[in-house]
Amino acid sequence: MTGLTWRLLDPDESAIEVDLGEPSLITPEWAWGGATGDGVDVCVVDGGIEPGHPLVGPVASSHAVVKRDGKHEVEEVEAADSFGHGTACAGIVRQIAPACRIHSVRVLGERGGGTGRALLAGLEWAIRQRFKVINMSLSTARPEFNQALRELVDEAYFAGSVIVASAHNSQIESFPWRFSSVISVGSHTSADPDRILYNPNPPVEFFARGQAVPVAGLRGSVSRNSGNSFATPHVAGRCALIVGKHPGLTVFQLKTVLYLTAANVRGGRTDESHHGSDGERGGGLERLGRGGH
Amino acid sequence: MAEAATEDSELLTSIVRVARSIFGAAASSVFLFDAEADELVFEAVSGEGEGFLVGTRFPADRGIAGWVITTGQAMSATELTTSQVFARDLAESTGYVPDSIMAAPIVHRMAPIGVLQVLDPHPQSRYSVADLDLLAMFANQAALSLHILLRNRAARAGLRREGAEYDTLAKIAALLADMDDEQRGRGVALIESLHGMLAGMAR
């Protein structure tokens, strides 16, 4: 396990600075400038979302994994959350991508949730619904689910659903964040919700705000929570902005855009006269996206 | 047997006392997870609630401790009293409503067996991811102790089969554990002879 990085505690980010060597055509302005997440469906796979919280706004749909005759099935339910965790994650997605549509599938709680099988069933359902962005501030450490999870996240990858998954808070190998076809997220300690860092020492690929994050809680409350769970929806929200503005991007391209626009990835001085306006940048990637998979 | 149960309780109490001290907290608790009932049980408390919370149960699908046991992930939440609280009714039922909670799973061989929780830690710890890491590491250390405790409890329950008391066996085990190597060797030989005789009687 030596060398694996789960989170970034050192405020000195120079150790993870990445120099591209030349200016990147992909800029934040091109990637998500002016975007609101409008038209993008984001699914929060968690313990449910409590409706009516001003920080969460409307919840487009609520489903839950239920066990019936020994099988896990997904059915529509009334919006609810017993832990407050899913509500917190949804509020962060809303903060970053205010116009996206937020959906909920509950895989935890309500007696019987929280098993690896419930998580698999909920994730499978979310992927088959073709939600563009799936926030998963959860993982399972049980190795018997590895293969099934890997197949599912690969299915999502090729189907164009991006799964943004929390790294475990401790140095524990859990899944699916450990798989390369998802976007894995750990915490940095900066208070900037828009600051996303690329980690050149994976498996955790990106860091986002995960310390003392103001979050929506149950019954309209607000608290400050810490943990990788709360870093992850910052990246899910960013993904919603990017795919809202560039709907043709594949998951591979989206991850590349996240990398090129990360706050610690620098490409030297961009020469405006050579590359034109921001609106013209990224044209190559846009063309790839339109002709994509 | 009563002595062994007291030692278990001392072990848990020392875990919560140290956790409380590390984080300068108002209280610290260890919950054990009763998977069959899907409940968390206060097993040891230091600080607020120390006198009456042990043995109290609550559903494992609620609140911060519930989320931690369900997901196996540590988390912290603070500024809880400034508004409605995360499972506030649960907190109120314990007689103490904290402003800040840090909680980490106690995991043994990938199975969450409990939760270590710290209430109202020192203000410096409340917002710190690094301190959450520290709590998670301490909970890892506590995991082995808790596993031994659960194993002891299971062994004692086995010895109480059908109401019969097998205290003497537990006392013999304790005596052997305290002996030096030479004495223990002779003691084990004696036990093996006894076992042979009993096996003969059982045939």
From TrEMBL, chain A:
Region (Disordered): 268-293
Superkingdom, natural source: Bacteria
Gene3D superfamilies (UniProt xref): Peptidase S8/S53 domain (3.40.50.200)
Presence of the UniProt keyword Hydrolase in the record: yes
Keyword match Protease: yes
Sample GO molecular function, one term: serine-type endopeptidase activity
SUPFAM superfamilies for the chain: Subtilisin-like (SSF52743)
Keywords: Hydrolase, Protease, Serine protease
Domain Peptidase S8/S53: 37-270
Transmembrane segments: none
InterPro entries (UniProt xref): Peptidase_S8/S53_dom (IPR000209), Peptidase_S8/S53_dom_sf (IPR036852), Peptidase_S8_subtilisin-like (IPR050131), Peptidase_S8_subtilisin-rel (IPR015500)
Active site: 46 (charge relay system), 85 (charge relay system), 229 (charge relay system)
GO BP: proteolysis
Entry's Gene Ontology cellular component terms: extracellular space
Family: Belongs to the peptidase S8 family.
Name this protein carries in UniProt: Peptidase S8/S53 domain-containing protein
